[in-house]
Description:
Layout: E1 3-4, E2 10-18, E3 36-38, E4 43-44, E5 50-51, E6 54-56, E7 60-70, E8 77-89, E9 101-103, H1 109-112, H2 116-163, H3 168-175, H4 179-186
Parallel strand pairs: 8-9
Antiparallel strand pairs: 1-2, 2-7, 3-6, 4-5, 7-8
Helix pairs in contact: 3-4
Bound molecules: zinc ion.
Amino acid sequence: xxxxxxxxxxxxxxxxxxxxxxxxxxxxxxxxxxxxxxxxxxxxxxxxxxxxxxxxxxxxxxxxxxxxxxxxxxxxxxxxxxxxxxxxxxxxxxxxxxxxxxxxxxxxxxxxxxxxxxxxxxxxxxxxxxxxxxxxxxxxxxxxxxxxxxxxxxxxxxxxxxxxxxxxxxxxxxxxxxxxxxxxxxxxxxxxxxxxxx
Length: 198
Ligand SMILES: [Zn+2]
């Protein structure tokens, strides 16, 4: 299973990786031996039966955090992101998820991606090194909208104060700025913001 961002535009997952860089598919069970890893699309044999191309799990050197990044269009992945690698170690005692070291016997290689503790570590890396940037941009958008709202509120408050007879010195003091700065910023329309500026 993969992990999706809330907007559905990023789907991360772990993939077995071979020493030469080839990545395995998340296909297990059925006709695929437990100690093999699927590396391509299903193909039809001469006798009409179907089979998956595989490589021996013994050649897998690790697992890589990947992401299919979709654009706004519905036409498939727009790009792929390749993230950090979990290195395969030869014994359980050498395993250390924080250091990205995972142990898996040959018949467990294809399933290591689904291990809950491995998934947790991988999701954390996917978020922090790739998708977190997207979440942060959402936060920038929300903060910018709040700042625009605050500016409108301030402009309205200044206009009201002017209509109520407050001086530019009073308004400047209340707004935490010099009289002249307040006057230059809002004098345009008797309290409305002066033209130009932003
Ligand atoms: Zn992505």
